[in-house]
Design goal:
Layout: H1 8-15, E1 22-29, E2 33-34, E3 37-46, H2 48-65, E4 70-75, E5 78-80, E6 85-93, H3 96-113, E7 116-122, E8 125-129
Antiparallel strand pairs: 1-6, 2-3, 3-5, 3-7, 4-6, 7-8
Length: 133
């Protein structure tokens, strides 16, 4: 969890290496619209220590499922405007298929398990997203 702009290059460097033939990345950016409303900004909040443990668990799951895989997961907190990156994931493996699968696994598990919340701010209102059923 960081409160500064994200760097895709940092994530790629964290997982790259001589034995890594495939490096796959995912970047999630703030959209300027949601459910028919124009988004002005998003406010991300997280329970940092638990989120970091969740990221570590996701990386371990990927390593168990696709041996030799490396993951870097970084999520931003604070106020973000449309176009800014909210999450960056880099997955590296000996082969591209494992790297693609590990990257997809990481974003799906992060969205499902990480204690990260966002408030969408619109012109004239705001609402928390992803809370409850």
């Amino acid at each position: 969890m960081v409160d500064r702009p994200l760097s895709l290059d940092e994530a790629v460097r964290a997982v790259s290496g001589e034995g890594m033939g495939g490096v796959v990345t995912f970047t999630g950016a703030v959209r300027d619209h949601s459910h028919g409303k124009r988004v002005v900004e998003l406010q991300y909040e997280a329970y940092g220590p638990m989120a970091e443990r969740t990221f570590e668990r996701i990386a371990l799951e990927a390593e168990e499922r696709w041996p030799g895989t490396r993951l870097a997961i970084v999520h931003r907190v604070g106020t973000l405007r449309p176009g800014e990156l909210a999450v960056v994931i880099a997955a590296a493996a000996a082969h591209r298929d494992e790297a693609f699968q590990a990257c997809r696994h990481a974003i799906e598990r992060l969205k499902q398990d990480a204690p990260i919340w966002k408030k969408e701010r619109f012109q004239g209102g705001e609402e928390w997203v992803g809370l409850g059923p």
